[in-house]
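Example record

One chain of 329 residues, shown exactly as stored in the release files.
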Amino acid sequence: MPWRSTVSPYKIWLSEIILQQTRVVQGTAYYLTFEKHFPTIFDLANASEEEVLKLWQGLGYYSRARNLHYTAKDIVENYNGKFPRTYKELLKLKGVGDYTASAIASICFNEGQAVVDGNVYRVLSRYYGVELPINSTEGVKYFKALAVKVMDVSNIRDYNQGIMEFGALQCVPKNPNCNSCPLNNSCVALQRNFVTTLPIKINKTKVKNRYFNYLVVVDNEGNTLIKQRTGKGIWQNLYEFPLLEVTENKVDVYDYYKKILPNLAVKSIVLYNEQPIVHKLSHQHLYTNFWVLRTDETIENGKAISELEKYPVPVLIADFIKIFKISYF
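Predicted structure tokens for this chain:
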């Protein structure tokens, strides 16, 4: 892993923010891209938010990218471009919680702080046979205390990276190879045959179904309409086509598009995808249709379809744009 060969707080912070909610296999490519485009925190701070969001495209949980950019500017402006050196000071940074602060403090500055990420939860729960839910208040406190109790303070940098990597490579979520595990003689979960049931996590997520209809307006010059999402909620500050959200899967766009585009003279409306595209987020399932609206009018403030890939968009729309550009041209 490229971030294992450095103790640069900027690069460790970058890797940890990317790896929140993201598996190493996917996150590594994004880390290398960010490292290439923004080799220092000054480069990241000086970038536009749009540039940062574009490079983040496809990773999801876009608040991480916005916090990343905000914190880079904060460190440059208020800390002279240098990261705080202690766990307590690191916690003051936006987007930095217990785990990230512990990781930076221990790996970069050798402070005796125990990291507890998903990998560490899994290793500790299996090895010690802990059946407390890792996302319960009691569980969070217990695992943090256990991690502090067993950590190697004298070699905290290697210990923390070692236990995280052990969870990522050996004690994996599904089908771990326990026969080759160097800890198999003393692992409680293996001895009691409940490796597959640990760690325990309470399912608190209630999935909401939403029904999106994107209006892809196309004029004779190859232009279309996109706008930036504002306010709180998913995909803040990303771009999208005009959106008609309804309460059920089926909708007659002919009756509704005027609410979104009241001044547009449309000559034809065609549903682009035969079945709704189901895009699953952690708390929401989006059932999405793309409608192509043709007009003979020149779209005011339109964007060229050929240049849409320049804009940061949700991966759902990015996938549509790739296919639509091929069929359009």
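Notes: The radius of gyration is 24 Å.
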